[in-house]
Amino acid sequence: MSAAIRTTHVGSLPRTQALLEANAAHHAGTLDDAGLAAVVTAETDAVVARQAEIGLSIVNDGEYGHAMTEKVDYGAWWFYSFQRFSGLEVISPEQAAASRRPTPAGKLELDAMTDRRDWVAFAEAYWDPTSGIHLANGPAPVIPAVTGELAYTGQEIVARDIAALTSALDKAGKPVSEGFIASISPASAARIGNYHYEDDEAAVWAWAEALREEYLAITQAGLTVQIDAPDLAESWDQFRIEPALEDYRAFSEVRIEALNHALRGIDPAQVRYHVCWGSWHGPHSTDLGFAHIVDLALSVNAAGLTFEAANARHEHEWRIWQDTELPEGKYLIPGVVGHATNVLEHPELVADRIERFARAVGPERVVASTDCGLGGRVHSQIAWAKLEALTQGAAIASERL
What we know:
The protein is α/β, with parallel strands linked by helices. The protein has one domain: TIM Barrel. The chain is 41% helix and 13% strand. Helix 14 links the parallel strand 10 (331-337) and strand 11 (367-370). The N and C termini lie close together (8 Å). The model has no long low-confidence stretch (mean pLDDT 92).
């Protein structure tokens, strides 16, 4: 008889009102670091206990250390870096236009996020506040930028998050090895404007060196680090003109090389790599097919590969795994419930989705998950119901298999 299908999620979980208020007070200067740490620790205890109660096999801190002050927030996974690295600031569009570093000749130049081809193709829907999709209302008034030497300054913050999660795991009766903390990939971090380094590739390598310190802190504590890397798939849509596939792959290979350099010496069993096409709610008409980059994703020094597999744009891609050989020591973490719909998946559907992957690569090499983070994207009541459907579906699939 096969072992039960394990379950997890991608990382971000709904923030509590107490945590939102604490982050806002800390940002305003009315709550000190110790006060914020106390709230983060207490809320991490509660969120780990709830995950364990639902029956999730591999849990995390809900990304509660990545500050959010609003219930809806698509960018906390990315902007948390501004609390942990030197050399960053926000600048005006005028400053950006005047001082951005050049891209080397013959290399792809990553355009600003406001130029997504999907946003252009469906501009009428994106600009309509009644459309029900995440809106792209033109350029932001300020732009996050690298304007100085990058260095990791988040030692105390990551130590706080690690201590909160390890303590919560102990209280929930789960070993440290079943806990993970998310950290941004060098390529995702480097999508902000580069106004300091010689060129974009130099900025990617600088990010890799700086981020290595966070990766090491998490894994040396016995936890797994999840590399949040939507850049591999999502960056395709950020070029004003669709690039040649071979150029895009070359662009991505450099960035994976930098990530593997940052992960050097870290046991791949303690690393999972998350690929997605962006968490915003919209048509995603210009998403790149997973088949074009799956080999690149598998080249990362990570045992686990997490990816979107439940949404309407990518669910059909499970068939890739009928023809793609999964390297020894690696396992899949497919999304089987989604973040882009408020519809609650039926456990039988969840089981069907799990079975497809289990039959393709073996049930012992599948960990059922969510497409992307649920926190900040769907209402908390719906998010937790989706996680319950996930564990229920995994139980059904385990019996069938």
